[in-house]
Amino acid sequence: MEIKIKQVILRHLQMELKSPFATSFGTFRNKEFILVEAIDEDGVSGWGESVAFSFPWYNEETVKTNWHMLEDFLLPLLFQAPVAHPQELQQRFSAIRKNQMAKAAIEGAVWDLFAKKRQLPLHKVLGGMKSSIEVGVSIGIQKNVDELLRVIDRYVQDGYRRIKIKIKPGWDVDVVREVRRRFPDIPLMADANSAYSLQDIDRLKALDEFQLMMIEQPLAADDLVDHATLQRQICTPICLDESIHSVEDVRKAIQLGSCQIVNIKIGRVGGLTEAKRIHDLCQENGIPVWCGGMLEAGVGRAHNIAMTTLENFTMPGDTAASSHYWEKDIIVPEVVVHDGTIAVPEAPGIGYEVDRRQVDSYMVFAKTYRAQ
Ligand SMILES: O=C(O)CCC(=O)C1=CC=C[C@@H](O)[C@@H]1C(=O)O
Ligand SMILES: [Mg+2]
């Protein structure tokens, strides 16, 4: 049953986070992103969401570069021929270097369409077996420690299975010590977003006393070698995020000993096909994985939930409830978390309906592209 995509609608959406999100890179509240709707010859819609921000602080991609890649390169390649299976898009897009988030946005829409055409939930088509997933929450840098402790307490009361806090030089050892004093037993991790270098090794070693689950991406965003040097000198497991763009990067990280855990983000690695490859290689090498977040709206959140049902997603990820981020999400029902878990939808495809009225209320611009 080939998929013949007749048109793709790109929508530039702008949504306001309920509270500002601060990392070692900076703080923002306004989230702009591209929502992708791929419509086949039967009028069935598949949905994908680009996770590129409007400013290239996380990686080199932006909303504008994604739009350019989709309009001028990826959609023309997509329209060239029917799609027998979404996995073939990696090869079809291989002439386009990198631009992983742009590729993941359209590939995700085709995966949703592929599952819907078979009347199957996306997680089943991916090979996921779980009917519910355990989730954590990622908390941005707060204005002071008391505020951080208050925010953590709220999410611990909500039952989230893991708390992720941000650290950077000047907001690290003393802060983690206070958190551990207040919450001695919670599953706790820290994301540094590349705020450190090997010159900071003593500061990073000092974190060993706090039994963190992991320290995420302490060093440079494109590094594997220095992370291997660091991992040999600290006890806390290193988790890589920004350094991993492909299964090849994971192969090298395993060979070098750069990390013990991998944060998989569908957008960062170019789509669900590559994410599955990374999951499988990590599983073969005893490396647990978890699903990272990019402050997604409901479509991206739905894709993350489906991916997290794969067996080696054994650590709670960043997929918090819609209400953690938005006054009103763009999907119905919204993603809800009960006692730190999300019930995986059984409806076809991503398993949630896109609320078109809500999408229109957040829409800045839209353009329809048609197969010739
Ligand atoms: O989506 C979420 O709730 C997690 C957000 C989050 O922690 C991040 C999003 C984007 C970049 C970073 O700041 C950070 C991460 O690196 O995981
Ligand atoms: Mg991270």
From TrEMBL:
The keyword Acyltransferase does not apply. Its cofactor is a divalent metal cation. Residues 145-237 form the Mandelate racemase/muconate lactonizing enzyme C-terminal domain. It comes from the Bacteria. It is an enzyme of class 4 (lyase). Transmembrane segments: none annotated. It holds the Pfam family MR_MLE_N. Its EC number is 4.2.1.113. GO terms for molecular function: magnesium ion binding; O-succinylbenzoate synthase activity; racemase and epimerase activity. The active site is at 166 (proton donor), 265 (proton acceptor). InterPro entries: Enolase-like_C_sf, Enolase-like_N, Enolase_C-like, Mandelate_racemase_C, Mandelate_racemase_N_dom, MenC, OSBS/NAAAR. The keyword Magnesium applies. Mg(2+) binds at residues 191, 216, 241. Pathway: Quinol/quinone metabolism; 1,4-dihydroxy-2-naphthoate biosynthesis; 1,4-dihydroxy-2-naphthoate from chorismate: step 4/7; Quinol/quinone metabolism; menaquinone biosynthesis. One of its GO terms (biological process) is menaquinone biosynthetic process. It catalyses: (1R,6R)-6-hydroxy-2-succinyl-cyclohexa-2,4-diene-1-carboxylate = 2-succinylbenzoate + H2O. Keywords: Lyase, Magnesium, Menaquinone biosynthesis, Metal-binding. SUPFAM superfamilies: Enolase C-terminal domain-like (SSF51604), Enolase N-terminal domain-like (SSF54826). Belongs to the mandelate racemase/muconate lactonizing enzyme family. MenC type 2 subfamily. Converts 2-succinyl-6-hydroxy-2,4-cyclohexadiene-1-carboxylate (SHCHC) to 2-succinylbenzoate (OSB). PANTHER family: O-SUCCINYLBENZOATE SYNTHASE, O-SUCCINYLBENZOATE SYNTHASE-RELATED. This is o-succinylbenzoate synthase. It comes from Parageobacillus caldoxylosilyticus NBRC 107762. The gene is menC.
